[in-house]
Amino acid sequence: xxxxxxxxxxxxxxxxxxxxxxxxxxxxxxxxxxxxxxxxxxxxxxxxxxxxxxxxxxxxxxxxxxxxxxxxxxxxxxxxxxxxxxxxxxxxxxxxxxxxxxxxxxxxxxxxxxxxxxxxxxxxxxxxxxxxxxxxxxxxxxxxxxxxxxxxx
Length: 153
Ligand SMILES: CC(C)(COP(=O)(O)OP(=O)(O)OC[C@H]1O[C@@H](n2cnc3c(N)ncnc32)[C@H](O)[C@@H]1OP(=O)(O)O)[C@@H](O)C(=O)NCCC(=O)NCCS
Fold this sequence. Notes:
153 residues, single chain, binds coenzyme A
């Protein structure tokens, strides 16, 4: 049996999701726009606005606890995937099974991941899933170049 399942029902994990988004250690290597306020995020989640955006809550099968989020951004057919595990669950080997659940939903074609070159844990994780370095990417969202990894199945 898998250790985790993933679900688009973000509303059921609203508070844990918000806590994750505001943890500076978790966000260290993540780019993107500055977070909204917690209250604003709570409103958007409860309106169901996160439920159909390719975002999945990762849930521990044995405890029912929210352990993180994963998902993808669709860029002209290329799916850029991401994963974020809550700090208290780091090192529990939950990231790989969560991404394997995601592949069951989105397949393994045209899948990429953009990773900070200093994010060694993440690079190891994605390499162990078969991703290979493809090119450098530069964006205003990040302070330095990132590496695009590609899953070539
Ligand atoms: C990256 C992240 C998802 C990994 O999750 P984790 O719970 O820390 O790691 P896991 O226990 O699931 O281990 C997954 C793999 O990471 C690697 N890993 C785990 N801990 C590591 C460590 N301390 N040092 C180096 N590699 C490590 C291993 O290769 C492991 O694979 P294995 O099980 O085959 O040995 C998590 O640390 C995280 O959410 N970080 C913040 C957000 C982030 O950087 N997301 C990725 C953006 S691309």
